[in-house]
Design goal:
10-stranded mixed beta sheet; 3 domains; UDP-N-acetylmuramoyl-L-alanine:D-glutamate ligase; alpha/beta; Rossmann fold; 6-stranded mixed beta sheet; Protein-Tyrosine Phosphatase, Chain A
């Protein structure tokens, strides 16, 4: 990586409050690559981002403390999870330290002069961004114009990192998050990125803590679409009325992808064999490529098609797309096999929404046919902690043979009338004939569920957080129980 600072620009001390967030940790690495001194703090550190930070030599200060800002930094980046009352933020405000948001700093420090390729959507954006970056990486081996810089909301296994900054890159591939930007900027992060071309995967109600309803979510995505210039492109999923509505007034060219016969990029002859998926991709009804992906799930084939479509439209050869997807290694915490103990396969997936849970379990049933499937869920995201999708959650979890629910994460922070009631979820699952168990936390799950697991079982651990370190505790318990 090259030093991205302009000639003569001084090294700065930049402090990140909430550094262990996926994007914040990536930004820390990007700033470090530019030669700046980077420090950061958080309330809790867990893999994979804590490992990535330590690997870069960036210490994580725990917990939050006003003393973490001594010596005084030149700039403070305030994470979007940080709110008033945080001792570091209060000192920043009291002393009028220079501060900014992650998204604003990314725009100002990294996107100027580069083609911005942004991947947006309620689901699939991390995987799709990783696929697009890998396609550009493979294409860049033959044509340096395509060698990318990128920022992904997870650790892409092909790269072993979530980011790259290279001053020679002509393109910057970036995951566009619809979540809010900072306590002082409640708009979505992707409005800071001004895409030249973009992917829109799905639009559903999510982030119930900041969006009042589906209409508010759609308004945010419509604003993102409105930022794309006329010369730009939008690659948009064809199987969602919400996506259709969000791109209806685009000024740029819109190319739909999916299964519809009339779509610009069409998926046909989809086949799944174990953990491998293959399909034909048509471009305006003509054969474009036969694609193979070493991942299960129709949703992953659609993610790959979106990445391929955007890349092809930007001039990437079909041969590079075929090679890249055939060698794609997924993203940490997306259907990641964490352990195989006594014939039990333990899989980690970053579950945040009932639709994502449904697609994960469908993919696992295709990958491991005939094996008993456990879904072990921590309701941790701001959407899953609420009852807004209770029925959809039951329908998704019912795809598993056994379900284990943990208590709602920090349930006291959710008003009682809005809070998910795990007992109701269990009752509904049992009425469907699904064996379901409620446990207080990771330790209780390990104690109660591990003895019931047997050789051949597949255990999907579903959480968007650390989940009480269950990823280490469960394999250890199974080592003696299976």
């Amino acid at each position: 990586m090259t030093d991205g600072r302009s000639e003569g620009e001084p090294v700065k001390h930049i402090h990140l409050i909430g550094i262990c967030g996926t994007a914040m940790a990536s930004l820390a690495g990007m700033l470090r690559a530019q030669g700046h001194r980077v420090t950061g703090s958080d309330t809790a550190a867990y893999p994979p981002m804590s490992d990535q930070l330590r690997g870069m030599g960036i210490a994580i200060m725990e917990p939050f403390s006003a003393e973490n800002l001594t010596p005084r930094p030149d700039l403070v980046v305030v994470g979007n999870a940080i709110s008033r009352g945080n001792p570091e933020l209060e000192r920043v405000l009291d002393e009028r330290m220079a501060m900014t948001s992650m998204a604003a700093l990314i725009h100002d420090a990294f996107l100027e002069g580069r083609e911005r390729l942004i991947v947006c959507g309620t689901h699939g954006k991390t995987t799709t961004t990783s696929m697009l970056a890998w396609i550009y990486e493979v294409a860049g081996r033959e044509d340096a114009r395509f060698a990318p810089s990128f920022l992904i909301g997870g650790v892409a296994e092909n790269f072993g990192t979530s980011f790259r900054v290279d001053e020679a890159s002509m393109s910057f591939i970036l995951e566009g998050d619809e979540y809010d930007t900072a306590f002082f900027d409640k708009g979505p992060k992707f409005l800071h990125y001004f895409p030249d071309a973009a992917i829109l995967t799905h639009v559903e109600f999510d982030h119930a803590d900041i969006y009042a309803d589906l209409t508010a979510v759609k308004t945010a995505f419509k604003r993102m679409v409105n930022l794309i210039p006329k010369r730009g492109r939008l690659v948009a999923f064809d199987g969602s009325e919400n996506v259709t509505e969000c791109c209806a007034k685009a000024f740029c060219g819109v190319e739909r992808y999916g299964f519809a016969a009339e779509s610009h990029w069409r998926v046909t002859e989809l086949e799944q064999r174990g953990s491998t998926t293959s399909w034909r991709m048509l471009r305006d009804g003509e054969a474009f490529a036969r694609l193979t992906l070493p991942m299960a799930g129709e949703h992953n084939a659609l993610n790959a098609t979106a990445a391929a479509a955007l890349a092809a439209g930007q001039g990437v050869p079909a041969s590079a797309i075929v090679e890249a997807l055939a060698t794609f290694k997924s993203v940490r915490r997306r259907l990641e096999v964490r352990a195989e103990v006594g014939g039990v396969t333990i899989i980690d997936d970053f579950a945040h929404h009932p639709t994502a849970i449904r697609e994960t379990l469908r993919a696992l049933k295709a990958s491991y046919p005939g094996r008993r499937l456990w879904a072990v869920l921590e309701p941790r995201s701001n959407t899953l902690r609420r009852n807004v999708f209770e029925r959809e959650l039951v329908a998704s979890l019912a795809l598993a043979d056994r379900v284990v629910l943990a208590a709602v994460f920090k349930s006291e922070a959710i008003p009682a009338a809005e809070r998910l009631e795990p007992e109701r979820v269990l009752k509904a699952l049992r009425e469907r004939g699904v064996s379901a168990l409620l446990c207080a936390d990771a330790d209780a799950i390990v104690a109660e569920a591990a003895p019931k697991m047997r050789a051949g079982d597949v255990v999907a651990i579903l959480s968007n957080g650390g989940f009480g370190n269950i990823y280490e505790k469960l394999p250890k318990a199974l080592g003696g129980a299976v």
